[in-house]
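User: Once you have settled down, look closely at the record that follows, taking as long as you need, and be ready to discuss the fold:
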Amino acid sequence: MKKLENHFEHFLFTSRWLVAPVYLALVISLVVLMIKAGKQLWELVSNIWVADGNTIITGVLSIVDVSLIMNLLIIIIFSGYENFVSKMEELHEHTDRPDWMGHIGFTDLKLKLIGSIVAISGVELLKTFMSISANNINTEQLAWMVGIHLTFVLSGVLYALTDRLTNKH
């Protein structure tokens, strides 16, 4: 019976590799986002002589938004892979290895995730405010956007508070 239990546990342990293709999909998503940022940059540069200040700022904020999402994906890919699939042993001595890599636990990952979502939501809200007249946003839509953003902020604060309380005990 113990042998059967050992085989089952090895099977469960090996099943973590089923997540690896998801990380590959996230890497491909980085390529898609890079193309999206390139398209946004092209539109920004090609319209520089006819665009007003708000349009330029909104274009730059769109690129910042993509950058934040890409940074978030990098954190998820690296920390998720190392925490749940396999350690990247060969890369521990690499000069470009981020200091946080290998040190972010699941709780830290959740906090970074919610922090990034709050930042992305804030950028989206700022973009909406910058182009409020061009997008025909009504007050109800704006109220929903602010409410959702505040929900993200409150969630982030509650996550951080929960983490702080948990670490004190």
